């Protein structure tokens, strides 16, 4: 039982506080013999890192990953892969005012209650900085299941939604704009929205949609590790996530069976795909798609009432460097977690028949 | 790694096919010394069992659980608790027509592809009959965290929604009607809807809301086993579930931080509760609430095109006894899974401080 | 974390008290498609069961295993395999005198201290009756790795040892005598010894040697799940075991490197095999062999001083039906646990290279 | 499932190759609030590190551990504890001759067969350098169960044994000599023996005995995670170990029940302790003691025949810096692993009763 681990056969275990010495992790169960594309990994980290554009936090971290083991002459050896990302740009003084003040809708209060002690600098372990570890592991996992095409993108910011089904989008355009929305027109509106929100010292929520294409049949375990249950758990592990739906999702709950069933073609594919590529917890070869809801970032630049650890009422105003909308930077995180889930099940599936 | 297990310290492992000899499981990690209320367990099973009312399947199973170990003179002993539920009312002949035909939006095709073999009778392991095991384990877990009040209820059927916040509902009325909706007026409409759907040989989706009250602070592990991530995984494990949201959920994704933040009172409680009782993956003592989306049952009583294992196009019409709407019977399942998650974290939390 | 489970990918979880309703378990992770030889499983159970001969306990249990799931039309389906063995010949009254008396060198005292409650009938969960579950699981595992030849045998009883290396023994003769020693001359002496001991109301220890031949190369994980470490853990899980050694074992601790090293032949085999078929925790294709030490059974038929749960000094004399020497019945248990370990690593090894 | 992890609630996961950039690990599940004694940790590392005396390898590593997370202002915070030990004194050139030659009784051949690739420098992951990670984790675990007194010591080198029971030894003298034997007279003979062996370019085996005193009652889980089974697994994980016995061990296999049973005193202690402080897998409060057998180090300084990866016969002579006897440096490793096992069970035991 490890609560800083994710995955089963392919397992990543992590550590690190936002303003500690370093963050990092260990990837265990990775098969031997993969030629590692290090640039691809660093590229994913760069997509996630702060300071990339005007609509994300201006904190600058080089976020350079150093691999420490498990790779020899460029290839995985089958032994555990240790990696480390040094923290270099901590402005911990920005957080001194948080020493004993509980920021609203943050984890300060619950950590203190649970552990009786808390590294208050930048949220400590509760910071989304942790997700840089996940991006490293996910980028490696992606290389293991390279035939699967995983694409996430910003599907809404506040009340601005892409009004097209994903099949009409060109995923190669996702990186063309800073909000990571492949629909240029929607992207423009989203960016304006975020800029406006930031100017007001406020923050805004949004959703990300993720699509996995060219799926093999048979991934997922059918009872407690259903493919969508593991994807859901992975997504709900990401900071600020409040909801997960796949296939028809919440809309499916309003439908009739005669509308919702996906009729088979002779080759085993289906005419519709309200199932979202998963039946009985197992991939059926159709596209997997799901949607993830993010709440607005809790740190806002206006004053809010709160309490301190002595249960005294006080005021707090956000300092430090924060994202007005977490969604653009969460796109690579969602792809990474999806890759981890799929690679894990891909390994497991190799041993399900004699 | 066990894919028929759920939980960490409190772990339930299960087995059983819908039309096999029996289903059952093992509950491991249950502490010694609890006086077991067997009637309460059987009562939960009765809530879930088929044939209770006119809007659920008419299959009749006594669903009597027999405990085989781990309980001595009425008390848990700390050893593993084995239990068994015999299958008694299998009409397997109803399923002979399914031998090699893949029912649309069922798991027949994916099981065959994954394992190369499949117990086709009643869906085998993929049948929701498995959830009777979960209800047994959950009913026992409920007794471990008896101070927490867990209440689930039908919050929508098709497009009929309760139009009140849960705080205005009286949960003691949930069992007063066969659709398990504590709002009598909505219940009546839902029941009519289901009857109408059943008459048409069709099925309908719906949602269940679950509320956990009188919560202790500190449950949940903050990285990969966030309280809401485990709840989400638990819910997504239930047959026919397509989505999960907690607190503000998908609505939160449209909101601004200044609207969404829950302002603290001096005692650590919060004025609003858009967080849904969880901050940073850890319970904060406020009510936990979440919503689960169920698709319509895939087995409908009208003819549909499909394929068989030889990839030939054929026709299928639902036989057997099926639910026109799965939601009423899923209410106790959701409570059971919630109890399992909370009891597990309750145990874990005992060892987080020296 | 399950403390009634053994194995990783192939995992068995068990339950059951000696004088409860039943014992049983769940085998998870077993691949689909194996044609099960049920007779072979029952045969292993028969080897272990009580009442087979004059030198073992006269308790009579039919020990018939019933498979409840996971096998369809004679083949494994890849779903969890539940099984149950009903307890039928409990003479619990034999144990009434144990209600609150702690038998010396038994687990009565420690269970009571740990759990505050204890099923005192026949030792409850601490009884070696549990090992019938292991034999079922192991017998199935044997069929998965059928190419490996696993043979255990009694290598000593008290101070009577087989004085030949295992290579000179004919394992087909192990079942020819009731002590399960393939060397007829030694067997005779061992049987006389046990009869003499039983007549004196006493018990005697012994050792079992196990050999796995026709081993594939590559089984075992090299750090914390070394093949010999898992074998050692498996053996030390068996009731009454006090020691485990493999290859050169304790003798190896007296040797020099120049004597101990196994020199390679051109084909990768080695000239000697002091390594016991394992190098760096991984099988090298040579025979695996190890030796397991069993203490004498604690229940003796003469009077001993002891205490009760009120810490009062009292006397106890063994009643019930007990083995004068546990070793003959432990032979199939050791083979079963060996099969479980090897089958688990055999599955794992399938996914160690891309 | 992680094969580079040890423990259940208190879990350490490690990485690192002998001549890679660094080794390190993550300690998960450590409770919050412990004031860490960093000097005590470094002191344990110093006891294990190479180059301490004339009878161990002359490789010099500073072996300085850097903690990266999970500790704030000197106290554990309940989050995962990352640590790293940089490799600084790699003389990898010493190993160039091993590129494709398989050293006898090393893991070179089995790694290559299992993974198809191998970091040949210094044995890579199979090197005992890994155990430095274990010493770090164990030294921290020791602080969690500080009331238990854990003492390991060299009990034999080759055929030189201490001829006293452990009760007559003064453990405070273990560090008084370089062979770590608390009996000065035996120590002297052992040191001479090792010097003589080293001069001959050879190596020698030995045994270590470990004693845990002031034990709480109730540690250990009674079926598959018996206290002695976990200790055995831990010990068998250490490089070069060939055997494990506890309490009466292999001698117990020659005894009669009437001799072997430990008779209770009124306070629950026992008059003898052949059980080795464990009954039914659970500690009974008496001393735990066990003995571990180490084979001679496989790298010897004389020429041996071997093969290379092309299956050609060749010759090899040990280069590099190696231990003539591994036992003195293994003493702190055994204490560390014992501490890990005991601390893990100590945590688990907190939740076994309601």
TrEMBL record, chains A, B, C, D:
Keywords: Amino-acid biosynthesis, Aromatic amino acid biosynthesis, FAD, Flavoprotein, FMN, Lyase, NADP. GO terms for molecular function: chorismate synthase activity; FMN binding. GO terms for biological process: amino acid biosynthetic process; aromatic amino acid family biosynthetic process; chorismate biosynthetic process. PROSITE patterns: CHORISMATE_SYNTHASE_1, CHORISMATE_SYNTHASE_2, CHORISMATE_SYNTHASE_3. It comes from the Bacteria. Its cofactor is FMNH2. This is Chorismate synthase. It comes from Polaribacter vadi. The gene is aroC.
């Amino acid at each position: 039982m490890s609560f800083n681990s994710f995955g089963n056969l392919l397992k990543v275990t992590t550590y690190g506080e936002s303003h500690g010495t370093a963050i990092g992790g260990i990837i265990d169960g990775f098969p031997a013999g993969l030629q590692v594309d290090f640039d691809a990994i660093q590229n994913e980290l760069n997509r996630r890192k702060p300071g990339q554009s005007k609509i994300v936090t201006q904190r600058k971290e080089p976020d350079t990953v150093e691999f420490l083991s498990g790779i020899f002459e460029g290839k995985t050896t089958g032994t555990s892969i240790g990696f480390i990302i040094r923290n270099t740009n901590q402005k911990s003084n920005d957080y001194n005012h948080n020493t004993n003040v509980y920021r609203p809708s943050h984890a300060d209060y619950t950590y203190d209650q649970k552990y009786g002690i808390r590294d208050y600098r930048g949220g400590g372990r509760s910071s989304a900085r942790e997700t840089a570890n996940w991006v490293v592991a996910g980028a490696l996992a992606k290389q293991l299941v390279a035939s699967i095409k995983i694409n996430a993108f910003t599907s809404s910011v506040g009340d601005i939604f892409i009004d097209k089904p994903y099949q009409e989008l060109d995923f190669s355009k996702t990186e063309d704009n800073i909000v990571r929305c492949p629909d240029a027109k929607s992207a423009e509106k989203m960016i304006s929205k975020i800029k406006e929100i930031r100017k007001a010292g406020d923050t805004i929520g949004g959703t990300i949609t993720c699509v996995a294409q060219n799926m093999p049949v048979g991934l997922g375990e059918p009872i407690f590790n259903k493919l969508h249950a593991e994807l859901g758990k992975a997504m709900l592990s990401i900071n600020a996530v409040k909801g997960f739906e796949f296939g028809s999702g919440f809309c499916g709950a309003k439908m009739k069976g005669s509308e919702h069933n996906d009729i088979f073609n002779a080759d085993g594919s289906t005419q519709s795909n309200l199932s979202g590529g998963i039946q009985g917890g197992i991939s059926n070869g159709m596209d997997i798609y799901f949607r993830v809801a993010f709440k607005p970032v809790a740190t806002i630049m206006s004053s809010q009432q709160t309490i301190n650890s002595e249960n005294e009422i006080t005021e707090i105003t956000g300092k430090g460097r924060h994202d007005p909308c977490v969604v653009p930077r969460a796109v690579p995180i969602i792809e990474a977690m999806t890759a981890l889930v799929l690679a894990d099940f891909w390994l497991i599936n190799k041993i399900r028949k004699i």
